[in-house]
Amino acid sequence: MSVKSSLRPNYFKLKVINLAVFAALAMPNLVDAANKAEALETEQVEVVGTTPLPSIGTPINQVPSNVQTGSSKQIGQQQSLDLSEYLDNNLGSVNTSNTVANPYQADVQFRGFTASPLLGTPQGLSVYLDGVRVNEPFGDIVNWDLIPTNAIANINLIPGSNPLFGLNTLGGALAVHTKSGAEFPGYKATVYGGSWARRAFEFEAGGENKEKNIDYYVAGNIFKENGWREHSSSDVKQIFGKVGWQNELSDLDLSLALADTMMEGTQTVPLSALNEPKKAYTYPDSIGNKMVMLNLKGSHFLTDNKLVAGNVYYRNNRTSGFNSNAASNSSSADPLDTDNQNVSTETDQDGYGGAFQLTLLNDLAGHKNQFTAGASADFGRTDFTSDSFQATVEGHETVTVNPQTLLAKVRLNTKNDYYGLYATDTFSFTDQWHMTLSGRYNVAKIKLAGFSDTAGNIGDLNGNHRYSRFNPAIGFNYNPNNNLGFYGGYNEGMRAATPVELSCADPATPCQLPNSFAADPDLKKVVAKTWEGGVRGKLADNLSWNAGAYTTENNDDIQFIASGIVPTQGFFQNVGKTNRQGLELGLNGKFDALTLAANYGFVDATYESDFTVGSAANSSKNALDQIQVSKGNRIPSIARHTLKIRAAYYVTSAWNIGTNIVMASGQFARGDENNQDINGKVPGYATVNLDTHYSINKNWKLFGKVNNVFDHNYATFGVLGNNIFNGQDEQFRSPAAPRAAWVGVTYEFGTKKSAAAVDVD
Asked: Which of 580, 571, 639 is nearest to 611 (CA)?
């Protein structure tokens, strides 16, 4: 049997282990076997995707960075609600902030860079789903509620300013790959419920017709809960389907994702009211998404050493938002009293585009070599409307005075055209020494057309902006043996200012996020430069470790600056240099019935330029309600130390118990950029979660989960503001959820892992 005929049908289903096999066959130094087809039996070669399009991947010992991975087994074992929860509970240098008390709307920070669902948050991570960039066109935000957790096959968190992943990859890129019927056959249905009236139904179905070379997979979720705080309910419906066809030379996959979500959130709580954390500060606040995404991707072998791959996609997301903006404890219906407002927004975003790449596996000058070059084009079209109404505060509810009378409105159309040309080459000097050279040329064109109208004052939002840059990368790997490897590298990335930022960048006419925009001056692009180095290895076959250090400097970083005139308003501004540097340590082991994993991250995130910002609630403000930020001040909302510990133990072959211990140090509150407010930092915390699974037989399984086992009171986020109910400037905090428990049952048949115990790898 030839390598070609034995390999391709398995490879083209795009599963991690078979990608590893192909990489091993392309670079025989990784697998020492007389018959290279025997590499199909290996389970120890690890690869990661190093380009946006899923391709043959690169062995992890040839990647010059500390890549972290996750699998569907791990996500399922921990009963992770969504991807952000899994990242926070497991991966190093990750911490989350739940600013709006809804479990699907967490800010995820990695190495001090953020992927957030909230408009106006500076975004520094790019997220890909099966090769499609899912950062939304309008503000580069990431909606975690639109990614179905049970459809995830594996994830790769690739750190640094990797230029291959394009715009927004300042601190890292998250690549998510979905399941297929060939690798995840069978049927599964799950129901569970518990605290806060949470109730959920999940299902999966997959299979293949080998005679016709066709496979299919479908997953769906229905989730509802009242929320642990008042006015923080969630209603999430998701469905994902994929059908694939392949032969010895070609593969084609068509996927469809649909989501319909409605989530209520509530604001942070002032310190004086933290004794009643379930109470809403003001309400109502809500956001709903209706999303449809089509993705067609394919691959074809031109020869044994030449592979072409490509995709085309269309994505539409319609977002409806409602925000209660209370600036005073006033129930007056006086038309001149406009401190309190209710704001309704509609955002209709269309995204479409595609990518094409070519991979060559030919030797170069007698040395093993893997070269990939590609091009991508992503287009975004957004219609944004915002209407603001006068409101009164009745108790803690903001009530619209006259829904027929507008205080302000915004009408904005934006166009994003993003183009990229990229290439990467991994050259093996010897079986131990490898060099990777990469580069990408980005062009971003952003066009805005629209206006803002506040009490008859018309603001012009029209503008054209263009950003371009070539971003390089170089890295080296030295692996003296199979149990030890060294890596080091340098890379650069960039992000363009988003339409949201460009529409609110004039200090003279501040805006109110995420609701209205006022002016359109230019902003500079942000350029990140990262140095990284480390070592990884194995102390034994069942015990691996890693240690690394990094530093990333952002030039012309963009921040949202409080105006100091109106408490809830501000503008975006380039503030000079910021820096994130840190250390990462990891340990993973499996000892008979016990599995252990630990990841420590140290992140030192600082401003490296002096600037002045408005911060009316900061106790160190001057007479103009401003504070002076100096070089060396710590950036708010970033935990300096994080530690994640995961342990799972088989009590019997059918019963497994697992725990996640999550620890994070204190962080400065937003508004305290000078680190001098009298309230100090938001304290650090440690929390413990438990999960357990019991297999009744090969079809029926019971499970349970307890979060915050010791019912610890802590907060994940802080911001300075004025408490309208007592008139005092205070630190507001986002309290974390108290102890909660859920139980459920799963019925499955025809799956690969259908016997007794649950795999906890």
From this structure: 571
Mark 339-360 as b/e (b = at least 16 C-beta within 10 Å): bbbbbbbebbbebbbbbebbbb
Residue 310 above 90 pLDDT? Answer: yes
Is residue 359 scored above 50 in pLDDT?
yes
Q: What amino acid occupies position 121?
A: T
Question: What SS3 state is found at 212?
Answer: coil
Compute the distance between CA of residue 377 and CA of residue 481 in angstroms, rounded to an integer: 41
Strand, helix or coil at 320? strand
- Give the integer Cα–Cα distance in Å for 274 and 145: 28
The strand pair at 68-71 and 152-159 is best described as antiparallel
CA proximity to 126, closest of 625, 471, 612? 471
pLDDT of 189 > 80? The answer is yes
Q: How far is CA 345 from the centre of its chain?
A: 24
Nearest residue to 240 via CA among 293, 190, 199, 200: 293
Give which of 171, 184, 132, 429 is closest to 291, Cα–Cα.
132
Is the per-residue pLDDT at 567 higher than 70? no
∠ at Cα 441 (439, 442), nearest 5°? 130
Task: Name which of 118-122, 144-148, 369-373 the model is least confident about.
Answer: 118-122
Burial 456-475 (b: 16+ CB within 10 A, else e): eeebebebebebebebebeb
Query: Which residue shows structure tokens 């994130």?
Result: 580
- Residues 6 or more apart in contact with residue 99 via CB below 8 angstroms: 105, 107, 118, 268, 717, 719, 734
- The pTM score is 0.91
Residue with tokens 């080459």: 425
Q: What are phi and psi of 86, to 5 degrees?
A: -65, -45
Instruction: Find which of 320-334, 558-572, 628-642 is predicted with most confidence, using mean pLDDT.
Output: 628-642
**What is the bridge-based pairing of β-strands 685-695 and 397-400?**
unpaired
Phi-psi region of 395 (alpha: psi -120 to 50; beta: other; left: phi over 0): left
Q: Give the fold, CATH level 3, of 46-749.
A: Maltoporin; Chain A (2.40.170)
Helix (H, G, I), strand (E, B) or coil at 166: coil
3-state secondary structure 328-378: CCCCCCCCCCCCCEEEEEEEEEEEEEEEEEEEECCCECCECEEEEEEEEEE
> At a CB cut-off of 8 Å and minimum separation 6, what does 560 contact?
120, 122, 513, 570, 571, 572
Here the tokens at position 701 are 């399984």
Q: Which residues contact 621 (CB under 8 A, 6 or more apart)?
A: 615, 627
Residue pair 479/485 in contact by the 8 Å Cβ criterion = yes
CB 582 within 8 A of CB 604: yes
Spatial CA neighbour of 328 closest among 337, 338, 336, 339: 339
Give the three-class secondary structure for 74. Answer: helix
Q: Which of 198, 191, 82 is nearest to 744 (CA)?
A: 191
107 Cα distance to chain centroid:
8
Distance CA 509, CA 520 (A): 10
CA distance 448 to 517: 12
Distance separating alpha carbons of residues 533 and 549, to the nearest angstrom: 6
C-alpha span between 92 and 111 (Å, rounded): 9
Q: What angle do CA 678, 682, 686 make, to 5 degrees?
A: 150
- Residue boundaries of the structural domains of the chain: 46-749
Which structure tokens are listed for 742? 């859920």
238 within 8 A of 689, measured Cβ to Cβ: no
If you count them, how many residues does the chain have?
Answer: 761
> What are the DSSP E strand ranges found in 556-654?
558-562, 570-574, 578-591, 594-607, 611-614, 626-629, 641-650
* CA–CA gap between residue 90 and residue 595 (Å, rounded): 13
The whole-number pLDDT of residue 569 equals 63
